[in-house]
Write a structure and sequence with these properties.
The complex is a heterodimer of chains A (368) and B (294). Chain A has 368 residues and is an alpha+beta fold. Chain A folds into 2 domains: 2-102, Roll (Ubiquitin-like (UB roll)), CATH 3.10.20; 105-122 and 137-260 and 296-327, Orthogonal Bundle (Fumarate Reductase Iron-sulfur Protein, Chain B, domain 2). Chain A is built from 18 helices and 7 strands. Chain A has a 5-stranded mixed beta sheet. In chain B, helix 1 (16-29) links the parallel strand 1 and strand 2 (32-35). Helix content of chain B is 50%, strand content 10%. The longest helix of chain B is centred in the N-terminal third of the chain and has 17 residues, at 52-68. In chain B, helix 2 (44-50) crosses helix 3, helix 3 (52-68) packs across helix 4 (79-93) and helix 3 packs across helix 5 (96-108). Chain B has a 4-stranded parallel beta sheet with strand order 2-1-3-4, sandwiched between helices. Chain B has 2 domains: 2-122, Glutathione S-transferase Yfyf (Class Pi), Chain A, domain 2; 124-291, Rossmann fold (3-Layer(aba) Sandwich), CATH 3.40.50. Classes of the chains: A alpha+beta (368), B alpha/beta (294). The interface between A and B is large, with 103 and 102 residues.
Amino acid sequence: MDVALKIWRYDPETGDRALKRYEVEAPEWACLLDVLDIVKDQVDGTLAYRKSCRMMICGSCGMRMDGRAILACKERMKPIVDRGHVPVISAMGNMPIVKDLAVDMGPFWQKIRAMKPWLEPGYEEYPEGGSEFRHSQEQMNPIHKEALCIMCGCCVSECNSMEADPEFLGPAALAKGFRFVGDPRDQKKIDRLELYNSEHGIWDCTRCYFCNERCPKGVDPRDAIAKLGAESIKEGIDRDMGAKHAKWFVRSAVTTGWLRETELVPKTQGLVSAIKETKFAISLAKKGKVPPPFPPHVADKQHEARMLRDLISTQGRDGALGHVQGERALSRIEHAVMEDPESAGRRRDVPEITPGEAPVNRDIGEQP
Amino acid sequence: MRVAYYKGCLASLSAKELDTSTQALAPMLGLELEELDAVTCCGAGDIHEAEPDYYLHLNARILAYAQATGADTLMTICNVCTLNLRQANHMLQNDEALLARVSQNLEKVGAPPYSGGVEVRHFLWMVADDYYDELKVVAHKGLKGLKVAPFYGCQILRPSKLMGFEDPDRPWSLEAIIDACGGEAIDYPAKIKCCGFPIIQAREETALGELIQPIEQAMEAGADAMVTPCPLCHLSLDAWQQKLEAQTGRAFRMPILHLSQLIGVAAGLEKSELRFRRHVVSMEPVLSKLEGPS
């Protein structure tokens, strides 16, 4: 088949960027990585990209196709060619570009290392009467998904929080963190949770769900971050404003059923910080955006919500297990591409977003 | 069509204008809303993160009360409610043992049981899909080519396997509605990105670094206003815009519409239903443009 694609080239020596079009002949079974190999072999040997295993295991060939982070070895080209589409290939986001499609993974590995990604079993002796420690499948289930990570960087590429805070530990590192926090063999859970509750840790996640959307292996890093949050709160590690914010929602549900919105700011930030925000609060209050806390807005039959929390507290699904219990069901959903032919007629011609641009990393103070 | 209506926290409190405009529009489109009284907050992402088993039960309880109305659809008007309820619903519908445990717990505290019989749909999807022909009739006053920047927000697009409605990278529903209302949809890359709201209190600087992108891009693309299907995005875009202005020294003054207000303007809803006076950023420039010569 004849394959056409456009590639964002970047020359580090001159700093030049250019979108170049390539047309090659490729076999019908070709994936994007195969096509890049053909381009490099037959058209332009200076094209730079990473690759190794070609089978979605090594995590080397992360890049963007039409603006979304993908593994080049996972994307079949035939359906794209059949559609007559010419995809735009570019380097991943949130990491500096070394050349063309290769990014500097240095900051990525630095954050992985910051998680102390090794098992700390806390024993030196073998167990009595045996030569190995045995764990059941059930004990290992909580980290089943996190253990699938191949560290390709597709999640980090799209992380909205990291665009605004480059120091954010990010989805890959935090998912790695839960892989050890949830491991029944690890004895450093509390130390780890303390470490991951840093300024740029768990509570810096903005829940944009780009990481879950992009992960080619089904790790669902956002869910791993939620598991870390649940374990932190379960263990009483709740000094972070993010944890306090989350706990106030629970408190609201238990006491009134609905969010006690006006009290959320002082409960999250503390009274002193909240008072500093008085001017801002008044500007909102003038528009009715600060509903008076009294009388409280109480849901009908609110006692049911309170009783439910008491009831389930005895059922052993607290902390991250509350997430793990739903994973089997969620894995049963087909990941379908929503291309409904009947609604296609309604679709406006949305102009193409220029894909492959480096993500906007603006200083708030920058003038146009 | 009769649907159970879950308006969530914000539309009951700081974003009442979203509720009043939705309630006014619904009968015009042929939607009969059965409001749920005995329900609680869905927990936002917060109870989901803090106490996930409690999150599941609170959402199951909302689904159970929706099912008890006899309606097969639970309509939401908030992205975060939509994700929470759909996620809980998928967990329950695809795991018999989990559904049995949760439903028994509901009954033990006196709530109705849940058997998985409700579909959760956002107002955006209902209008863009089921009621699109009605929309064209209802939006009779038009928008005189008003340039509107659609802002989807995260949790109505992602995770797409939980949403199952449109391509999360090339969504079309807001554009289709703007078009049917007689406006012109503006395109810009950040329309599918995060407004920063979930961390706006705990990590304001990071959140504002996210918030500036859609507002700045919409302004540079020439938008008269932005529209969003999520009251949390609305609060972020509308109320925190002044903080961006203070930090950057720039005047964005970008009016932000709830989806129901955008349609409501085109449908000629009353001022008392649209309640633009509850917005922080003035809607006046938009209204005078619509009142001016076409």
